[in-house]
Design a protein that fits this description.
The complex is a heterodimer of chains A (about 350) and B (about 160).
Chain A lengths: L25 E10 L12 H14 L10 E4 L5 H9 L21 E4 L4 E4 L5 E8 L3 H16 L6 E2 L3 E2 L11 E8 L1 H5 L3 H10 L2 E4 L12 E6 L7 H47 L5 H16 L8 H10 L2 H8 L5 H19 L6
Antiparallel strand pairs in A: 1-5, 1-8, 2-3, 3-4, 4-5, 6-7, 8-10, 9-10
Helix pairs in contact in A: 2-9, 6-7, 7-8
Chain B lengths: L12 E7 L2 E7 L1 H6 L12 H15 L14 H7 L7 H4 L1 H12 L14 H22 L3 H17 L2
Antiparallel strand pairs in B: 1-2
Helix pairs in contact in B: 2-3, 2-5, 6-7
Classes of the chains: A alpha+beta (about 350), B mainly alpha (about 160).
Chain lengths: ~350, ~160
């Protein structure tokens, strides 16, 4: 099967639009609900046939779920590794569902439903992972849409629920609400002023946690952090969403303050550093993924500080996702080696930046 | 920094003492501090799951039911300890007491206070639950080579599956 990206409503990534509040600092807001279908063992314990029946049951319910109208069903168990990786790069599926660790195949029944409003992973660690993304800082909007999807789907497919423990999940760290609210946030100001450790420590005291760009187990690169609630039980969904909103609003203020301090105390050093980042991206011939991420972080900061004009946050968001390896390989029509990908990445970034600046790529 | 008393473990607390107007600083590990009757505040665990599994382990040692299994999916406490994952919704009932304590450790509460949920069509669920139970029985029958029972169960499952369509 060849992955036809045109089937994906908005490419599955409408949140790249940079349309929400504070979009230069907060890339996206996400709500995720972990749910299991009653009557089957959880995914890891389920037999192949059971997982396929879970998928069939969900698929059969989709036409009656308004939030999933026009959704594309993508079977990961019928895809190549590169195709699965591409969906992971777009944050549509987890590393686990895409079976990217080791040279394994995706498990039978592994799939994702992608509509313009939501993405639903099927047969992840839990049978269902309902996800709603919003552009910029909009936990409230994501929460409303995710709750609507959850009610609609839960009205068609019976969920595993316990009067005392709430929604039952494979891993007890998700039990209760099964809810993870998170933002993908860019904090270069706090990193450069070395205030970040204090801020992250503060998060943990507030019952929140942080991870890298791709969630659990991923490294922090390019000053991108994923901040989310740590616990899922003992507080209501609304409380969890409100708490994250409150704390993230404070973090945004701290980031803005750090940026003001940077400009005031080290204006020309910062300006020089960020223009150098832009220069490298505009002209480099080979760009490793981590370097690209760090340079894009610098340019993003320059745009936020209004040092650099004529470059949109939307373009930077797209570069962040579309310059990753699987995207480059799929564009090339074959699996690129690391050094080939570095060349292709540099070319892709140069072309996008040149066209944005109205220049020819040289 | 090492503990000033045992010189073996890392110091976790800084004790300032004033004896006869002289101020002394003492760095102590948790154990030596406890020996002196000083309670150390336990910081929030960095990996709640790690703590959680450790607790399961301790419980399992106390309770002879270490090998206790969930009747529905066959997951034992030992399996859970190894993987950190429960096998099915019925595991929550099978290991209820252990889980209640452990959820409290992970989340600070073992009581869901969020949205409640009603299964849309209880008849549908009943069918699914009985199907699941029948499948579990079938598995057992096959394992213990009771083929006549297995055949009967297989037919029952087929009938139920057909009524689902």
């Amino acid at each position: 099967m060849t992955l036809d990206l045109s089937l994906l409503p908005d490419g599955g990534v409408p949140w790249l639009a940079a349309s929400g509040e504070h979009a230069d600092i907060v890339l996206s807001s996400r709500i995720r609900f972990a749910r299991n279908v009653a009557g089957y063992a959880f995914t890891a314990r389920a037999r192949d046939g059971e997982r396929l029946r879970v998928l069939a049951q969900v698929r059969e319910a989709v036409p009656r779920v308004p939030s999933l109208v026009g959704a594309a069903l993508l079977r990961l168990d019928e895809m190549t590794t590169i195709e699965r990786q591409l969906l992971h790069e777009r944050h549509l599926v987890s590393k686990e569902l895409a079976a990217l660790e080791g040279a394994t195949e995706a498990r039978s029944g592994a799939a994702v439903l992608v509509s313009s409003a939501a993405a639903v992973m099927v047969n992840e660690e839990d049978h269902l992972r309902l996800q709603v993304f919003r552009s910029g800082f909009d936990i409230g909007g994501a929460f409303q849409a995710a709750t609507k999807l959850d009610r609609e789907l839960g009205g068609e497919v019976p969920y595993a629920f316990h009067h005392e423990f709430g929604f039952l999940t494979s891993c007890p760290t998700n039990t209760g609400t099964g809810m993870r609210a998170s933002v993908l946030i860019h904090l270069p100001g706090l990193v450069l002023t070395q205030e970040i450790a204090k801020v992250l420590q503060g998060l943990q005291q507030m019952g929140l946690t942080y991870r890298g760009l791709y969630g659990e187990g991923s490294e922090v690169v390019g000053n991108f952090f994923q901040i989310s609630n740590q616990t899922t039980m003992g507080r209501s969904e609304d409380e969890l969403a409100d708490q994250l909103t409150r704390v993230v609003r404070r973090v945004i203020e701290q980031e803005e303050e750090a940026r003001r301090v940077l400009l005031r105390d080290a204006g020309y050093i910062i300006e020089d550093k960020l223009w150098r980042a832009y220069g490298t991206l505009r002209h480099a011939r080979s760009l490793p993924a981590d370097e690209a991420m760090n340079l894009l972080s610098g340019v993003r900061l320059a745009v936020g500080l209004q040092l650099l004009s004529g470059l949109s946050v939307y373009t930077l968001n797209k570069l962040l996702i579309f310059s990753q390896s699987a995207h480059l390989s799929l564009e090339a029509g074959r699996t690129l080696t690391e050094s080939e990908a570095n060349l292709a990445r540099a070319r892709h970034v140069r072309q996008v930046l040149a066209s944005e600046a109205g220049l020819a790529d040289r | 920094m090492l503990c000033d008393q045992c010189h073996e473990r890392d110091a976790v607390l800084n004790l300032t003492q004033i004896v006869e107007n002289a101020v002394t600083q003492l760095h102590l590990c948790e154990k030596c501090a406890a020996e002196r009757g000083i309670e150390t505040t336990v910081s929030m665990p960095k990996h709640p799951l790690g703590e959680f599994l450790q607790a399961v382990q301790q419980q399992a040692l106390q309770v002879p039911g270490d090998a206790a299994r969930c009747a529905y999916c066959g997951t034992s406490l030992r399996d859970f300890r190894a993987s950190g994952r429960l096998g099915c919704a019925h595991c929550y009932g099978a290991f209820e007491q252990s889980l209640r304590d452990l959820l409290r450790r992970v989340h600070g509460s073992a009581q869901h206070v969020g949205r409640s949920y009603q299964v849309p069509n209880p008849a549908l669920l009943e069918r699914d639950t009985s199907l699941g139970a029948l499948r579990a029985q079938l598995q057992k029958a096959i394992e213990s080579e009771e083929f006549e029972t297995a055949a009967r169960l297989r037919d029952e499952i087929r009938t139920l599956e057909l009524t689902a369509r």
